[in-house]
Amino acid sequence: MDYAEALEIMGVMAISTDMGYPTVYDRRRKIWVYRDDGTPISNRRQCINCGQYETPEGYDACLGYLDGYISVCCGHGDKNRQIRILNE
Questions:
Q1: Same-domain check for residues 55 and 74
Q2: Which residues on neighbouring strands pair with residue 25, listed in sequence order?
Q3: What's this model's pTM, rounded to 2 decimal places?
Q4: Domain range for 5
Q5: How far apart are CA 45 and CA 53, in angstroms?
Q6: Residues paired with 72 in a beta bridge
Q7: What is the DSSP string of the chain?
Q8: Is CB count within 10 Å lower at the N or C end of the chain?
Q9: 26 plus 66 within the same structural domain
Q10: How confident is the model at residue 46 (pLDDT cuts 50, 70, 90)?
Q11: Which among 47, 44, 45 is positioned nearest to 63, based on CA atoms?
Q12: How many domains does the chain have?
């Protein structure tokens, strides 16, 4: 049984993505983990699309700092997940 199958048996409380990788909330450990192997998302991964790590400031490396925005996400390969929130 792999980690993803074990999560289905335990019942997943929440799902999301991080740098394009599916993530789940592990209720037992009380942390967010990568769905494929259970590694905590605090162990940063490269973007699934461009292969770069986020910048030290936390920006998506392919976008960098964008003046006038308070939140930006490149979508990590999923055009439907691109987000840009203006600071008004």
A1: yes
A2: 32
A3: 0.70
A4: 1-45
A5: 7
A6: 84
A7: --HHHHHHHH----EEEETTEEEEEETTTTEEEETTT--BTTS----TTT--PPPTTS--TTT---TTEEEEE--TT-GGG-EEEE--
A8: C
A9: no
A10: very high
A11: 47
A12: 2
